[in-house]
Design a protein that fits this description.
The complex is a heterodimer of chains A (about 250) and B (about 375). With about 250 residues, chain A is an alpha+beta fold. Chain A folds into 2 domains: about 5-90, Gyrase A, domain 2 (2-Layer Sandwich); about 100-245, Cyclophilin (Beta Barrel). Helices cover about 25% and strands about 25% of the residues of chain A. Chain A contains 7 helices and 13 strands. Chain A has helices at about 5, 30-45, 70-85, 105, 125-135, 135-145, 240-245; strands at about 10, 15-20, 50-55, 60-65, 110-120, 150-155, 160-165, 180, 185-190, 195, 200-205, 205-210, 230-235. In chain A, the strands form 3 sheets. In chain A, strands 7-6-13-5-12-9-10 form a 7-stranded mixed beta sheet. Chain A is elongated and about 55 Å long. Chain A starts with a helix and ends with a helix. Chain B is an alpha+beta fold. Chain B has 2 domains: about 5-185 and about 355-365, no CATH class; about 190-350, Cyclophilin. Chain B has 8 helices and 24 strands. In chain B, helix 1 crosses helix 3 and helix 3 (about 170-195) crosses helix 4. The radius of gyration of chain B is 21 Å and the shape is globular. Chain B starts with a strand and ends in a 7-residue tail after the last strand. The chains are: A alpha+beta (about 250), B alpha+beta (about 375). At the A-B interface, strand 2, strand 3 and strand 4 of A face strand 14, strand 17, strand 21 and helix 8 of B.
Chain lengths: ~250, ~375
């Protein structure tokens, strides 16, 4: 790959923030750079750094303008970012996020297991997903719980993970009319994405199950279970297990 | 010991607890929230004898009334609104004392939108992720910890009156300088734009501005911006439209963002980008080509290109824009924007200036009222 194409771009985001952009597509390679860049910034313990926000292809770094000028902040950030692209070789993230789940990939970033009770009262749209995809409900569950998903970023609401790696065979359009309330922990499919609702909210995703895990808790530190760069695997559980896990929290 | 000091008799259209926000949690999907006009909250707190980041009440469009339950000192800053104690006017942007049973009312602002009311000793509220700031959409913070705005009957308490009151550190001179600078800036930006009476009065002065400003009741408000991070997603003509035309604030204006109306800003290839982080004051332009300024309760990530971001020095002004206001965006380099921010900080901390201001032909003097 051309070295120049790989050089990150540094973009002003006002006079108190800088965006480091690693590319212009959604890929595990860029995600790996983004997540390593975010960790490197946070690990540098810069007293003037206010926010570090990783997203699909860039990291937003906000600083306190009372403590540092934009030029000085950008110089420090550029220095830290220099090492990110060149250290690609130290990870194998890009080989593992599409469901292959190689052992080498698991060494990078935490893998979080999310138990899911599929179907029944918790996954009322599972029959519709099966009908749409021409699969049996069990086949949908098997395909959904097989991949190691990558958490590209957290956004939208506290603890909501944007996941990559869903098998395209279970892609199903959103509901024509969104539900007014989707319970916390609901696992759904929307187009070619899958996700978990950390808290109860309105939503149009097709619900295929629910996890008893609490993905968001404002009173906890950290306030949510997942962070960008984590891998997650959905593990099917039955209803009694769901209730016993829920009760144990 | 917590002590109840106020009972909310009427919250007006929208009043809520805010401090300086909860920065640092955007990576988990939580916006910073906090007072939209951070300097006004800081000044109100300093006038009341508090540390500048103490919890205060953000009052939107006035009509707020509360009954004092204890003897205390209060202070207001932010939008210019009549403040009365038992019907007797007191100066806005000043500290005043109340006795048990007295009724404090904050009327509809002459200019600006949000008034900040500080209570000596601060306001007790549960800290959620390090802040008491109310984030209504996310059901976080505020008086109940679950994002609720204030309502009639809510009791406002100070956390630990003796300790907090003694924490007052800022010398009076410093408070006055900051109040003068903050008030002068907001008055210059909004007084004429929001008050036709003031616009007419300014006409009678010999050194008044040109006739074009007097032709309409308001005048456009300049907001300085730094271009980017995605200004390259717009055509040259689109960037020109953004900096050369006025945009009018619609009624879609809240703590999340301000949606404008105006000539369409032309994109190069559509209005979709891969979602990325939302910086403070980001000005995103969706497919219809009209800008939206994102504020403290913004979503943390977004998929529209951001043509520019509001300069830090002018971010507080966004708290006081009203539907119908016409805004001009003035581009600055990041370094120039930072220089402007630093100069304003330095000026507002210069000692030795008296706070005497004229509004509606009446002179007001801001003083720090001591309880003893």
């Amino acid at each position: 790959m051309n070295v120049h194409e790989d050089a990150p771009r540094f973009l002003w985001a006002g006079d108190s923030a800088v965006v480091t952009q690693f590319g212009n597509d959604i890929s595990p390679l860029l995600a790996s750079r983004v997540h390593r860049a975010a960790s490197a910034l946070e690990g540098a313990n810069l007293p003037w750094l206010v926010e570090v926000l990783p997203s699909y292809r860039s990291v937003l770094a906000e600083f306190d303008p009372r403590l540092i000028s934009p030029t000085a902040a950008c110089e420090v950030i550029q220095g830290i970012m220099k090492t990110i692209v060149t250290s690609d070789g130290h990870t194998s993230d890009e080989h593992t996020s599409d469901g292959l789940g190689g052992e080498s990939g698991r060494a990078e970033g935490d893998i979080v297991t999310i138990p899911v009770c599929y179907g029944g009262q918790f996954g009322t749209d599972l029959p519709d997903v099966a009908a749409h995809t021409g699969l049996t409900p069990d086949e949908v569950i098997a395909l959904h719980s097989e991949p190691l998903y990558l958490v590209y970023m957290i956004g939208f609401t506290l603890g909501f993970p944007y996941l990559g790696g869903m098998d395209p065979r279970i892609a199903t359009p959103r509901l024509a009319t969104p539900r007014t309330v989707v319970p916390a922990g609901s696992v759904g499919i929307a187009g070619n994405q899958t996700g978990v609702y950390p808290s109860a909210s309105p939503g149009g995703w097709r619900l295929i199950g629910r996890t008893p895990l609490r993905l968001a808790d404002p009173s906890a530190d950290p306030p949510c279970l997942l962070r960008a760069g984590n891998r997650i695997r959905f593990v099917p559980i039955d209803e009694p297990t769901y209730y016993s896990m829920e009760g144990n929290q | 010991m917590m002590a109840n000091v106020l009972e909310v008799a009427s919250p007006g259209p929208l009043s809520m607890l805010q401090d300086l926000g909860r920065p640092g949690w955007m990576k988990y999907g939580v916006p910073p929230s906090g007072a939209l006009d951070q300097e006004a909250l800081a000044v109100a707190n300093l006038l009341a004898g508090n540390p500048e980041g103490a919890v205060g009440i953000e009052i939107t469009y006035g009509n707020f009334t509360a009954r004092a339950l204890d003897r205390t000192v209060l202070a207001c800053a932010g939008a210019w609104a009549p403040v009365n104690v038992d019907g007797m006017p007191v100066s806005p942007w000043a500290a005043f004392s109340v006795m048990p049973g007295q009724v404090v009312s904050i009327g509809v602002p002459t200019w600006g939108v949000r008034v900040y009311l500080a209570v000596r000793g601060g306001i007790a509220a549960p800290l959620v992720m390090g802040s008491a700031s109310t984030y209504v959409r996310g059901a976080l913070g505020g008086i109940d910890g679950r994002g609720r705005a204030l309502r009639t009957g809510d009791l406002i308490a100070t956390p630990d009156q003796s300790a907090s009151a003694r924490a007052s550190t800022s010398p009076v001179g410093d408070v006055t300088a900051r109040a003068v600078a903050a008030l002068a800036k907001r008055q210059a930006a909004f007084a004429i734009a929001h008050s036709p009476a003031l616009a007419r009065a300014s006409l009678s002065q010999p050194n008044s501005t040109s006739a074009s400003t007097s032709a309409s009741p308001g005048r456009s408000i300049a907001i300085r911006v730094v271009m980017g991070p995605q200004d390259d997603h717009f055509t040259d003509a689109g960037r020109q439209t953004f900096v050369e035309h006025e945009f009018t604030l619609t009624n879609k204006a809240d703590r999340m963002g301000l949606r404008f109306d105006g000539p369409a800003i032309q994109h190069v290839h559509g209005a979709d980008i891969i979602s990325d982080g939302m910086p403070p004051g980001a000005i995103q332009v969706p497919g219809d080509g009209v800008p939206i300024i994102m504020l403290a309760d913004r979503q943390t990530t977004g998929g529209y290109p951001k043509i520019a971001c509001v300069a830090r020095a002018d971010l507080d002004l966004a708290a006081h824009l009203r539907p119908g206001d016409r805004v001009r965006f003035i581009p600055l380099s990041a370094e120039d924007a930072h220089e402007a921010f630093k100069q304003e900080q330095a000026a507002s901390r210069a000692p030795g200036r008296a706070l005497r201001i004229r509004i509606d032909g009446v002179e007001h003097v801001v003083t720090l009222f001591e309880l003893q």
